[in-house]
């Protein structure tokens, strides 16, 4: 590990991005330090997913630089250090024929190939990852029979099995009920504090996440705010007005997700970059 790597997990400098002529991100500057828990918030269409794709090297910036663990993203190769859970993760339908254990083991494919050839210590890693998200008793349950919140935990476990240093979560609580959301955030906080995993949580649900994060970035094409949670709390009203307009109650966004609930596509099996 180099000096640089211990310094910043992610750095974004003067980043600009557009889809054709449509400007989506303007002059974004961001730093994510090891052990931090960043909430990246912004309204629908503010560019959150686009920024995430840029961070993961899935899109190329028009201008600017992105580095992961001190390495420019275009030459970065240690993808097992990064776990990614997308918003479509909780979309297995009830007939999907895989157990919790099998789904989590998929997180090791990049390392070991087919899970039926998993060695004992790999099986142990799968079990540990399942335990980390508090789902031990569901190991041999069918994934499709679990609730949205439980499925989402399993996807986190799948991302954790390769022991990432950075975990990026895109709207992980879409379609999850309020109590489960709280439990879910408690679990994330625990991973952050006890395991030292750096977290980036992308959400438009600013209300629930702000109790848990250490840092906040508010995005709406440009970054309206990027700093620690305490400073964010002081400027909260101002930020909300700048990003969402005067009449919008932030709480309302919590319950605005139902249109996502019925997606049943399974393409997210490829969602973790290996
Ligand atoms: N492939 C694409 N081609 C053209 N425009 C796109 C494409 N993907 C997204 N956009 C547009 O770019 C803008 C930013 O989209 P993006 O998905 O990054 O926002 P977001 O903050 O993640 O939104 P949401 O919270 O709704 O997921 C939106 O106006 C969107 O319509």
TrEMBL record:
Q: What does the record give under GO molecular function?
A: ATP binding; ATP hydrolysis activity
Keyword Acyltransferase on this protein? no
Keywords assigned: ATP-binding, Nucleotide-binding, Transport
Matching Pfam families? ABC_tran
Q: What is this protein called?
A: Metal ABC transporter ATP-binding protein
Q: Classify the source by domain of life.
A: Bacteria
| Species of provenance | Alkalicoccus halolimnae
Q: Which PROSITE patterns match?
A: ABC_TRANSPORTER_1 (PS00211), ABC_TRANSPORTER_2 (PS50893)
Enumerate the spans annotated as ABC transporter domain: 10-252
Family listed = Belongs to the ABC transporter superfamily.
User: Could you tell me which residues belong to the region Disordered?
Assistant: 255-274
- Claim: Cell wall biogenesis/degradation is one of the keywords in the record: no
**Compositional bias per record (Basic and acidic residues), positions renumbered to this chain:** 262-274
Cite the CDD domains for this sequence.
ABC_Metallic_Cations
Task: Give the matching SUPFAM superfamilies.
Answer: P-loop containing nucleoside triphosphate hydrolases
């Amino acid at each position: 590990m180099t000096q640089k790597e211990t310094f910043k997990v992610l750095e974004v400098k003067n980043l600009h991005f557009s889809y054709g002529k449509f400007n989506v991100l303007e002059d974004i500057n961001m730093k994510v330090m090891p052990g931090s828990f960043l909430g990246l918030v912004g309204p629908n269409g503010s560019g959150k997913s686009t920024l995430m794709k840029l961070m993961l090297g899935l899109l190329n910036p028009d201008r600017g630089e992105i580095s992961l663990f001190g390495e420019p993203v275009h030459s970065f190769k240690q993808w097992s250090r990064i776990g990614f859970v997308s918003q479509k993760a909780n979309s297995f339908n009830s007939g999907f024929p895989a157990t919790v254990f099998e789904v989590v083991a998929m997180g090791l494919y990049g390392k070991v190939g087919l899970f039926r050839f998993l060695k004992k210590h790999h099986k142990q890693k799968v079990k540990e990852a399942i335990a980390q998200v508090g789902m031990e008793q569901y190991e041999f349950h069918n994934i499709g029979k679990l609730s949205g919140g439980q499925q989402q935990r399993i996807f986190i476990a799948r991302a954790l099995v390769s022991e990432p240093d950075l975990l990026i979560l895109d709207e992980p609580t879409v379609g999850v009920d309020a109590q489960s959301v709280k439990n879910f955030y408690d679990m994330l906080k625990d991973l952050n504090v006890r395991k030292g995993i750096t977290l980036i949580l992308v959400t438009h649900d600013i209300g629930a996440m702000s109790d848990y994060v250490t840092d906040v970035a508010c995005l709406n094409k440009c970054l309206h705010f990027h700093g620690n949670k305490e400073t964010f709390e002081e400027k909260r009203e101002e930020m909300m007005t700048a990003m969402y307009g005067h009449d919008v109650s932030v709480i309302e966004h919590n319950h605005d997700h139902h249109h996502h609930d019925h997606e049943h596509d399974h393409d997210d099996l490829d969602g973790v970059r290996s």
